[in-house]
Protein backbone atom coordinates (compact mmCIF):
# COMPACT_ATOMS: atom_id res chain seq x y z
CA UNK A 1 0.00 0.00 0.00
CA UNK A 2 1.34 3.38 -0.94
CA UNK A 3 0.39 6.15 1.45
CA UNK A 4 -0.96 9.24 -0.27
CA UNK A 5 -0.27 12.18 1.96
CA UNK A 6 -2.89 14.87 2.34
CA UNK A 7 -1.79 17.98 0.52
CA UNK A 8 -1.83 20.94 2.87
CA UNK A 9 -0.60 24.49 2.79
CA UNK A 10 3.18 24.73 3.35
CA UNK A 11 4.21 26.41 6.61
CA UNK A 12 7.78 27.30 7.57
CA UNK A 13 9.09 26.77 11.09
CA UNK A 14 12.49 28.41 11.23
CA UNK A 15 14.06 27.10 8.03
CA UNK A 16 11.98 23.92 7.95
CA UNK A 17 9.02 23.59 5.58
CA UNK A 18 6.16 21.41 6.75
CA UNK A 19 3.05 20.25 4.95
CA UNK A 20 2.47 20.14 1.21
CA UNK A 21 4.19 16.76 0.95
CA UNK A 22 7.45 17.84 2.60
CA UNK A 23 9.14 15.13 4.72
CA UNK A 24 7.36 14.52 8.02
CA UNK A 25 9.32 16.24 10.77
CA UNK A 26 10.14 14.83 14.21
CA UNK A 27 9.51 17.08 17.19
CA UNK A 28 9.98 16.85 20.93
CA UNK A 29 9.57 18.99 24.01
CA UNK A 30 12.08 19.74 26.74
CA UNK A 31 11.38 18.55 30.27
CA UNK A 32 13.78 21.01 31.90
CA UNK A 33 12.80 24.28 33.56
CA UNK A 34 13.05 26.70 30.60
CA UNK A 35 14.43 29.38 32.96
CA UNK A 36 17.44 27.10 33.55
CA UNK A 37 19.14 28.00 30.28
CA UNK A 38 22.16 25.70 30.75
CA UNK A 39 20.06 22.62 31.46
CA UNK A 40 17.59 23.40 28.67
CA UNK A 41 20.32 23.96 26.08
CA UNK A 42 22.04 20.72 27.17
CA UNK A 43 18.82 18.78 26.75
CA UNK A 44 18.14 20.34 23.34
CA UNK A 45 21.67 19.42 22.23
CA UNK A 46 21.05 15.80 23.29
CA UNK A 47 17.76 15.85 21.38
CA UNK A 48 19.42 17.33 18.29
CA UNK A 49 22.03 14.59 18.50
CA UNK A 50 19.25 11.98 18.63
CA UNK A 51 17.63 13.46 15.49
CA UNK A 52 15.03 15.89 16.85
CA UNK A 53 14.23 18.51 14.21
CA UNK A 54 11.99 21.00 16.05
CA UNK A 55 11.95 21.62 19.80
CA UNK A 56 9.18 23.01 21.99
CA UNK A 57 9.74 24.61 25.36
CA UNK A 58 7.20 25.49 28.04
CA UNK A 59 6.85 29.21 28.74
CA UNK A 60 5.04 29.52 32.08
CA UNK A 61 6.29 32.99 33.02
CA UNK A 62 8.18 36.09 31.86
CA UNK A 63 11.56 34.70 32.93
CA UNK A 64 11.02 31.66 30.70
CA UNK A 65 9.93 33.91 27.82
CA UNK A 66 13.15 35.92 28.22
CA UNK A 67 15.28 32.76 28.41
CA UNK A 68 14.26 31.96 24.82
CA UNK A 69 16.66 34.61 23.52
CA UNK A 70 19.72 32.94 25.09
CA UNK A 71 18.55 29.41 24.39
CA UNK A 72 18.12 30.25 20.73
CA UNK A 73 21.72 31.46 20.48
CA UNK A 74 23.04 28.04 21.49
CA UNK A 75 20.83 25.62 19.56
CA UNK A 76 20.59 24.58 15.92
CA UNK A 77 16.93 23.65 15.43
CA UNK A 78 13.77 25.80 15.41
CA UNK A 79 12.20 26.54 18.78
CA UNK A 80 8.48 26.55 19.55
CA UNK A 81 7.21 28.48 22.58
CA UNK A 82 4.35 26.72 24.37
CA UNK A 83 2.02 29.24 25.98
CA UNK A 84 -1.12 28.88 28.03
CA UNK A 85 -3.45 31.52 29.44
CA UNK A 86 -1.25 34.63 29.18
CA UNK A 87 -1.14 36.39 25.81
CA UNK A 88 1.68 38.69 27.04
CA UNK A 89 3.99 35.66 27.33
CA UNK A 90 3.24 34.78 23.72
CA UNK A 91 4.11 38.30 22.60
CA UNK A 92 7.32 38.25 24.67
CA UNK A 93 8.27 34.85 23.22
CA UNK A 94 7.88 36.28 19.71
CA UNK A 95 10.08 39.27 20.63
CA UNK A 96 12.72 36.89 21.98
CA UNK A 97 12.98 34.97 18.73
CA UNK A 98 10.63 31.98 19.01
CA UNK A 99 10.20 30.31 15.61
CA UNK A 100 6.61 29.31 16.31
CA UNK A 101 4.00 29.69 19.02
CA UNK A 102 1.85 26.90 20.33
CA UNK A 103 -1.28 28.28 21.89
CA UNK A 104 -4.81 27.20 22.52
CA UNK A 105 -6.76 30.35 21.64
CA UNK A 106 -9.56 28.98 23.83
CA UNK A 107 -7.54 29.64 26.96
CA UNK A 108 -5.68 32.78 25.88
CA UNK A 109 -8.63 34.95 26.86
CA UNK A 110 -10.59 37.61 25.00
CA UNK A 111 -10.69 37.94 21.25
CA UNK A 112 -8.70 41.14 21.59
CA UNK A 113 -5.86 39.19 23.25
CA UNK A 114 -5.91 36.54 20.54
CA UNK A 115 -5.74 39.36 17.98
CA UNK A 116 -2.66 40.83 19.69
CA UNK A 117 -0.90 37.45 19.60
CA UNK A 118 -1.84 36.96 15.93
CA UNK A 119 -0.53 40.42 15.05
CA UNK A 120 2.79 39.80 16.84
CA UNK A 121 3.25 36.46 15.07
CA UNK A 122 2.28 37.98 11.73
CA UNK A 123 4.79 40.83 12.11
CA UNK A 124 7.54 38.32 12.96
CA UNK A 125 6.39 36.00 10.14
CA UNK A 126 6.17 32.99 12.41
CA UNK A 127 3.38 30.39 12.53
CA UNK A 128 1.02 29.59 15.36
CA UNK A 129 0.04 26.06 16.22
CA UNK A 130 -3.49 25.77 17.45
CA UNK A 131 -3.03 22.98 19.95
CA UNK A 132 -6.26 21.41 21.13
CA UNK A 133 -5.99 18.93 23.95
CA UNK A 134 -8.65 16.52 25.23
CA UNK A 135 -7.79 17.52 28.79
CA UNK A 136 -8.32 21.24 28.30
CA UNK A 137 -11.39 21.54 26.07
CA UNK A 138 -13.66 24.55 26.40
CA UNK A 139 -16.42 24.03 28.98
CA UNK A 140 -19.10 24.96 26.44
CA UNK A 141 -17.99 22.11 24.15
CA UNK A 142 -17.77 19.62 27.01
CA UNK A 143 -21.35 20.51 27.90
CA UNK A 144 -22.55 20.44 24.30
CA UNK A 145 -21.08 17.01 23.58
CA UNK A 146 -21.16 15.54 27.10
CA UNK A 147 -17.38 15.11 27.27
CA UNK A 148 -14.20 15.30 25.18
CA UNK A 149 -15.66 13.46 22.17
CA UNK A 150 -14.12 13.40 18.69
CA UNK A 151 -16.72 15.94 17.56
CA UNK A 152 -15.89 18.22 20.48
CA UNK A 153 -12.14 18.03 19.77
CA UNK A 154 -12.62 18.74 16.07
CA UNK A 155 -15.05 21.59 16.73
CA UNK A 156 -12.63 23.18 19.19
CA UNK A 157 -9.85 23.07 16.61
CA UNK A 158 -12.08 24.53 13.87
CA UNK A 159 -13.36 27.25 16.18
CA UNK A 160 -9.85 28.24 17.23
CA UNK A 161 -8.58 28.20 13.66
CA UNK A 162 -11.40 30.48 12.51
CA UNK A 163 -10.67 32.84 15.38
CA UNK A 164 -7.13 33.32 14.01
CA UNK A 165 -8.40 33.52 10.43
CA UNK A 166 -10.82 36.22 11.45
CA UNK A 167 -7.77 38.31 12.37
CA UNK A 168 -6.24 37.69 8.96
CA UNK A 169 -3.83 35.07 10.28
CA UNK A 170 -3.40 31.92 8.20
CA UNK A 171 0.16 30.83 9.03
CA UNK A 172 -1.32 28.00 11.04
CA UNK A 173 -0.49 24.46 12.12
CA UNK A 174 -3.14 22.43 13.94
CA UNK A 175 -2.93 19.66 16.48
CA UNK A 176 -5.60 17.68 18.27
CA UNK A 177 -4.31 15.44 20.99
CA UNK A 178 -5.85 12.99 23.40
CA UNK A 179 -4.56 9.93 25.23
CA UNK A 180 -7.14 7.67 23.54
CA UNK A 181 -6.14 6.15 20.20
CA UNK A 182 -9.72 5.58 18.89
CA UNK A 183 -10.67 9.14 19.85
CA UNK A 184 -7.55 10.51 18.19
CA UNK A 185 -8.39 8.72 14.95
CA UNK A 186 -12.06 9.77 14.97
CA UNK A 187 -11.24 13.43 15.66
CA UNK A 188 -8.79 13.53 12.74
CA UNK A 189 -11.30 11.82 10.43
CA UNK A 190 -13.67 14.70 11.09
CA UNK A 191 -10.97 17.36 10.87
CA UNK A 192 -8.89 16.28 7.88
CA UNK A 193 -11.37 17.39 5.21
CA UNK A 194 -12.12 20.70 6.84
CA UNK A 195 -8.81 22.54 7.15
CA UNK A 196 -6.05 23.33 4.63
CA UNK A 197 -3.31 23.52 7.26
CA UNK A 198 -0.55 21.05 8.19
CA UNK A 199 -1.25 18.78 11.13
CA UNK A 200 1.08 18.04 14.00
CA UNK A 201 0.08 14.63 15.34
CA UNK A 202 0.67 12.73 18.55
CA UNK A 203 -0.97 11.30 21.63
CA UNK A 204 -0.85 13.16 24.91
CA UNK A 205 0.13 11.37 28.09
CA UNK A 206 1.14 8.36 25.99
CA UNK A 207 2.84 6.84 29.02
CA UNK A 208 6.04 5.10 29.98
CA UNK A 209 8.58 4.44 27.19
CA UNK A 210 7.55 0.89 26.27
CA UNK A 211 3.77 1.20 26.43
CA UNK A 212 3.78 4.82 25.30
CA UNK A 213 5.76 3.95 22.20
CA UNK A 214 3.35 1.13 21.37
CA UNK A 215 0.28 3.36 21.86
CA UNK A 216 1.91 6.06 19.77
CA UNK A 217 2.71 3.55 17.03
CA UNK A 218 -0.93 2.44 17.01
CA UNK A 219 -2.31 5.99 16.90
CA UNK A 220 0.24 7.60 14.63
CA UNK A 221 0.39 4.55 12.38
CA UNK A 222 -3.37 4.75 11.80
CA UNK A 223 -3.27 8.49 11.06
CA UNK A 224 -0.20 8.26 8.85
CA UNK A 225 -1.80 5.44 6.85
CA UNK A 226 -4.68 7.85 6.14
CA UNK A 227 -2.19 10.39 4.81
CA UNK A 228 -2.54 12.57 7.91
CA UNK A 229 0.42 14.14 9.69
CA UNK A 230 3.14 16.62 8.76
CA UNK A 231 5.05 16.69 12.04
CA UNK A 232 4.99 14.08 14.80
CA UNK A 233 5.76 13.80 18.45
CA UNK A 234 5.86 10.61 20.45
CA UNK A 235 5.21 11.87 23.99
CA UNK A 236 6.86 9.63 26.55
CA UNK A 237 7.34 10.07 30.28
CA UNK A 238 10.95 10.59 31.30
CA UNK A 239 13.97 11.59 29.20
CA UNK A 240 12.60 13.09 25.95
CA UNK A 241 15.56 11.82 23.91
CA UNK A 242 13.82 8.41 23.98
CA UNK A 243 10.99 9.98 21.95
CA UNK A 244 13.14 10.52 18.88
CA UNK A 245 14.10 6.94 17.93
CA UNK A 246 10.50 5.90 18.61
CA UNK A 247 9.14 8.59 16.27
CA UNK A 248 11.70 7.75 13.60
CA UNK A 249 10.96 4.06 13.86
CA UNK A 250 7.25 4.73 13.33
CA UNK A 251 7.92 6.90 10.26
CA UNK A 252 10.39 4.37 8.85
CA UNK A 253 8.01 1.46 9.50
CA UNK A 254 5.27 3.31 7.60
CA UNK A 255 7.67 3.79 4.68
CA UNK A 256 7.37 7.56 5.04
CA UNK A 257 10.92 8.48 6.00
CA UNK A 258 13.89 6.16 5.86
CA UNK A 259 16.44 6.54 8.64
CA UNK A 260 19.53 4.44 7.94
CA UNK A 261 19.64 0.69 8.25
CA UNK A 262 16.71 -1.43 9.37
CA UNK A 263 17.71 -4.61 11.16
CA UNK A 264 15.13 -7.36 10.94
CA UNK A 265 15.48 -10.57 12.92
CA UNK A 266 13.47 -13.75 13.08
CA UNK A 267 11.50 -14.51 16.25
CA UNK A 268 13.49 -17.78 16.64
CA UNK A 269 11.96 -21.23 17.01
CA UNK A 270 12.99 -24.82 17.57
CA UNK A 271 15.27 -24.69 14.52
CA UNK A 272 17.33 -21.76 15.81
CA UNK A 273 21.05 -22.41 15.97
CA UNK A 274 22.38 -18.96 16.98
CA UNK A 275 21.67 -16.29 19.59
CA UNK A 276 19.59 -14.16 17.21
CA UNK A 277 18.52 -11.52 19.74
CA UNK A 278 22.05 -10.80 20.95
CA UNK A 279 23.54 -10.74 17.44
CA UNK A 280 20.75 -8.48 16.12
CA UNK A 281 21.25 -6.04 19.00
CA UNK A 282 25.00 -5.91 18.39
CA UNK A 283 24.59 -5.50 14.63
CA UNK A 284 22.07 -2.70 15.18
CA UNK A 285 24.65 -0.84 17.29
CA UNK A 286 27.51 -1.54 14.85
CA UNK A 287 25.65 -0.22 11.78
CA UNK A 288 24.03 2.75 13.52
CA UNK A 289 26.43 5.18 11.81
CA UNK A 290 25.32 4.13 8.31
CA UNK A 291 22.98 6.61 6.64
CA UNK A 292 21.78 4.52 3.69
CA UNK A 293 18.40 2.85 4.24
CA UNK A 294 19.40 -0.79 3.84
CA UNK A 295 17.62 -3.82 5.28
CA UNK A 296 19.78 -6.24 7.25
CA UNK A 297 18.56 -9.64 8.39
CA UNK A 298 19.69 -11.77 11.31
CA UNK A 299 18.03 -15.16 11.01
CA UNK A 300 18.18 -18.20 13.24
CA UNK A 301 18.56 -21.05 10.76
CA UNK A 302 19.78 -21.84 7.28
CA UNK A 303 16.63 -23.82 6.42
CA UNK A 304 14.24 -20.90 6.23
CA UNK A 305 16.37 -17.86 7.03
CA UNK A 306 17.51 -16.76 3.54
CA UNK A 307 14.05 -17.29 2.06
CA UNK A 308 12.11 -15.65 4.89
CA UNK A 309 14.43 -12.65 4.70
CA UNK A 310 14.45 -12.36 0.91
CA UNK A 311 13.51 -8.67 1.17
CA UNK A 312 16.77 -7.97 3.04
CA UNK A 313 19.68 -6.44 1.16
CA UNK A 314 22.08 -8.50 3.23
CA UNK A 315 21.71 -11.07 5.95
CA UNK A 316 23.09 -13.96 7.92
CA UNK A 317 21.57 -17.23 9.02
CA UNK A 318 22.89 -19.63 11.62
CA UNK A 319 23.62 -23.13 10.40
CA UNK A 320 24.15 -26.66 11.62
CA UNK A 321 27.58 -27.72 12.87
CA UNK A 322 28.39 -24.07 13.51
CA UNK A 323 28.57 -23.17 9.82
CA UNK A 324 26.25 -20.33 8.82
CA UNK A 325 25.35 -18.38 5.71
CA UNK A 326 25.85 -14.87 4.42
CA UNK A 327 23.17 -14.02 1.87
CA UNK A 328 22.14 -11.13 -0.35
CA UNK A 329 18.51 -10.76 -1.44
CA UNK A 330 17.90 -14.36 -0.44
CA UNK A 331 20.88 -15.72 -2.44
CA UNK A 332 23.69 -17.40 -0.51
CA UNK A 333 27.02 -15.68 -1.14
CA UNK A 334 29.26 -17.34 1.49
CA UNK A 335 29.36 -20.16 4.04
CA UNK A 336 31.18 -19.08 7.17
CA UNK A 337 31.79 -20.35 10.66
CA UNK A 338 29.44 -18.97 13.32
CA UNK A 339 32.26 -16.94 14.85
CA UNK A 340 32.86 -15.12 11.54
CA UNK A 341 29.25 -14.38 10.63
CA UNK A 342 28.64 -11.17 12.54
CA UNK A 343 31.85 -9.46 11.39
CA UNK A 344 31.23 -10.58 7.81
CA UNK A 345 27.74 -9.10 7.93
CA UNK A 346 28.95 -5.76 9.30
CA UNK A 347 31.72 -5.63 6.66
CA UNK A 348 29.23 -6.40 3.89
CA UNK A 349 26.91 -3.65 5.18
CA UNK A 350 29.79 -1.15 4.98
CA UNK A 351 30.46 -2.26 1.39
CA UNK A 352 26.92 -1.71 0.13
CA UNK A 353 26.24 1.48 2.07
FE1 LIG B 1 12.82 -20.50 12.96
FE2 LIG B 1 14.61 -20.42 11.00
FE3 LIG B 1 12.33 -18.99 10.78
FE4 LIG B 1 14.17 -18.26 12.55
S1 LIG B 1 14.43 -18.30 10.31
S2 LIG B 1 11.97 -18.45 12.93
S3 LIG B 1 15.01 -20.18 13.20
S4 LIG B 1 12.51 -21.20 10.84
Tell me the number of structural domains: 2
Spans of at least 5 consecutive residues whose pLDDT stays below 50 are: none
> What proportion of the residues is helical, as a percent range?
40-55%
Strand order in the sheet with the most strands? 8-7-6-5-4-3-10-9
Q: From the 3D coordinates, which CATH architecture of the largest domain would you assign?
A: Alpha-Beta Barrel
Describe the structure.
Helix content is 42%, strand content 19%. It is an alpha/beta fold and 353 residues long. The chain has two domains: 243 residues, TIM Barrel (Alpha-Beta Barrel), CATH 3.20.20.20; 91 residues, 2-Layer Sandwich (Sulfite Reductase Hemoprotein, domain 1), CATH 3.30.413.10. The strands form three sheets. The protein has an eight-stranded parallel β-sheet. A five-stranded mixed β-sheet has the order 11-12-13-14-15. Helix 1 links the parallel strand 3 and strand 4. Helix 1 crosses helix 2 and helix 8 packs parallel to helix 9. The structure holds iron/sulfur cluster.
Secondary-structure map:
Layout: E1 11-13, E2 16-18, E3 25-29, H1 37-50, E4 54-58, H2 62-74, E5 79-82, H3 87-95, E6 100-103, H4 105-108, H5 111-124, E7 128-133, H6 139-145, H7 150-166, E8 172-177, H8 181-191, E9 200-201, H9 209-225, E10 231-232, H10 243-253, E11 262-265, H11 276-286, E12 295-299, H12 305-308, E13 314-317, E14 323-328, E15 331-337, H13 338-352
Parallel strand pairs: 3-4, 3-10, 4-5, 5-6, 6-7, 7-8, 9-10, 11-12, 12-13
Antiparallel strand pairs: 1-2, 13-14, 14-15
Helix pairs in contact: 1-2, 2-3, 3-5, 6-7, 7-8, 8-9, 9-10
The structure holds iron/sulfur cluster.
Amino acid sequence: MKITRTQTKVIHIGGIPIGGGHPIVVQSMTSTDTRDITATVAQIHALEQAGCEIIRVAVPDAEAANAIRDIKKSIHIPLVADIHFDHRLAIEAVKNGADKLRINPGNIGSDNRVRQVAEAAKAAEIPIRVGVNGGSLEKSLLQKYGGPTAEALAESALKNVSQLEKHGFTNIVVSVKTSSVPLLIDAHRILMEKIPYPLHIGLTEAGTPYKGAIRSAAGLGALLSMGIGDTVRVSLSGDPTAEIPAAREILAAMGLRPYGPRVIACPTCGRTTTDVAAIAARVEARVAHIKKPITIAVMGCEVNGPGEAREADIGIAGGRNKVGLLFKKGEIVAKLSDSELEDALVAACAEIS
